[in-house]
Fold this protein.
Amino acid sequence: MAINLEDPKKFRTLRDQAHQVAMNMLRPISRKYDRAEHAYPKELDMLAAMIDGLSESGANEGAGAAGVRREETAQEKAGVKNGANLASVMSIAEMCWGDVGLLLSMPRQGLGNSAIASVANDEQLKRFEGVWASMAITEPGTGSDSANIKTTAVKDGDHYVLNGEKIFVTSGERSDAVVVWATLDKELGRAAIKSFVVPKGTPGMKVERLEHKLGIRASDTATITFTDCRVPAENLLGSPEIDVKQGFAGAMATFDNTRPLVAAMAVGCARASLDLTRDLLARAGVSVDYDAPAYTQSAAAAKFLQMEADWEAAYLLMLQAAWMADNRKPNSLEASMAKAKAGRVGSDITLSCVELCASVGYAEAELLEKWARDSKILDIFEGTQQIQQLIVARRVLGLTSAELR
Amino acid sequence: MSLFQSLRPGGRHGLPASEQRDPIGYAVAALNKVAQSDLLDRLGLRRTVEQTVFTATRSGFRTATAASRAFQKAGQKGKPGVRVPAASPSGVFDLTPTEDEQMLVDVVTEFAEEVLRPAAAEADETCLAPESVLKGSLEIGLPILGVPEALGGISETRSAVAGVLVAEALAKGDMGLAVATLAPGAVATALGLWGTDAQQQTYLPAFTGNEVPAAALALTEPTVLFDPLKPATTAVRSGDGYVLDGTKSLVVRGAEAELFLVGARLHGAPVLFLVESSTPGLTVEASPAMGVRAASLTTLTLDNVKVPLDAVLGDTEGAAYTEAVQLARLAWCGLAVGTGQAVLDYVVPYVKEREAFGEPIAHRQSVAFMVANIAIELQAMRLVTYKAASRVAAGKDASREIALARKLCADKGMQIGLDGVQLLGGHGFVKEHPVERWYRDLRAIGILEGAVLV
């Protein structure tokens, strides 16, 4: 044991591979799919196959949203572990340095897969292996207050019957299945909310439309309705019991795992902006001197220093949250800290880089303006900035959700 | 100093140079001057105790530096000193301190809680670290934390991480007292890092013995837009030594210090010089500041100060000097994290107890989110600082990481100080609560150079 915050040695190869993929596969098609919103990035099929191959060869420990379970295995060595969670955040950050929208469109790397990995039992894990799952939580009238969802699931024989409307489903049209949050009994509140894996093509499930968005346009965002949609009972993830004591914790556990991933997306996108801006500034004759005080340097260099410091902060908070998950330490506080910091830093950096680069930053000839659009969603989905602050505040102050609303 | 000189516009009394005094203005100013000296007389400042207080808390009291002990020349000139090896990291990302570090942190935390915090308010007022604090810091071994084991210290490998953890733990008690107790160790650590055999054998025995001298790493200068890598203090080769001229500001415990490590420019490069306090030409003036007052801050003037050739610590190309600036900044980051934690720990119970509109103010999002942001930015400051420290300990270049840590700790640390006072409202503004002190202390981050070093 010793304090060391360098990138884990074990995953440096993975990180560098992901960087190469991002540079040579995603960047060349980044603008193309920003313009061609809703067109399927067919190049990703090849990439997904490659990643699957890497996974099977064991060379890759979770390039996407995989591996977020926390059960103890016997062969687990004692001591500090650098595992799948760290591997995931590092590779996702690299891929999002390439393109956030395309990363979100990666087959079989959806947030739904993360949900399955987090709450499914062993039988379900096996059954849904290789399934590309998207995640459907938000409803037209319910955003951050996800305990308030109105989609219902009623047991009928060996099926559940789902009714309701879900919006903002990332890859909702492209994925093989959708993980849907629905309530078994509205009266019982959050404890009655369960997640269901609904395979594409299930009668009663219909993709109504795809959204036109500010950013991450390569990733499609669907509105899906469920009308008397019958789902096999064994597709309910986790326990079907309504445990009032455990409450929302089961479903919310997904977020402990996905928030560091979204933080990783913001970190990756922001670094793309920083890297290019550093280069453009240098060509304009401005370079950052790490030893001279910021106030003795040009305003652009001083701003860059501040952005890079904030970026480093977000990056390390992200690694911390993942490291804690790898070492089976409860990390919901740290996951929210990471997402809050990365989300706001992502916006500040990408927007400020556009400003520093002036019209070069604003024009579509460069990708800076795109990154400034892509980054905004990362401070919103999987819990907005304000929700993260609420979670952190409750934890730090020791207040319940009734006391601090 | 003549009356007219002290009334010249341009900085004095906060007046910009564009201000002009008319005859009535001069008359009023003169009257004010007389009134003040009268006031001083009536306070009866001749009594010794009050004299001490006076020297430390009032600027303008100039005196010779302390008489240093006779540092017995020993060791071989030109022979490299003892160096500790870099720590060898396993390559595993890890946020857990070693067992030794944890033990050290536990001891220092207790010291900070039980000795530093209770003494903090008075030390801030009097600008003096009490004897009990200084003595306790020696018992813990603070001055020899960064000194190689072979030279009587406790450092087996590069101890930057331990140094940062200790700075953090101390500053959780009080930043001013932390700086006062860490100052001798800054010079001792520098001797361990860059000293020749002769320099180590001459000076380090004093630090590892029972009567540890006060010592100060003096890098800051009274210059607007100050850049420590371009000191205005000069060193000129003369005969068999150097002559130093210039002014160093915010020098910790300068009046008691027996050994100074002073930065000066030699042939265009910044260089570190060891200067014993009895060297002729040194004067010291009390210079209390906004915060970090317990560190008895002074201004050190070097007027035609002659030092021998082997007073140079490290190289003359600026490498050791630059590293010293970086390692001092890193230590300040550790201090910022500690004081930031003190703020968080203080405001949490306060906002939960304080009621407004019939319920604790913590139940309001505008209050709760401020607390959340303190917690988020504080943890960010800590991680960025630890990363820089772990790179230093591993012997890697940490220029970038230290610069980022310093920027983050200066910006976010100040925000935490600001919010700490704001969360207590009017109560935060009065001395009944320590948050106003932390507000003043946190402004030091990003401004003070040198003084502490890990």
Observations:
- The radius of gyration of chain A is 21 Å.
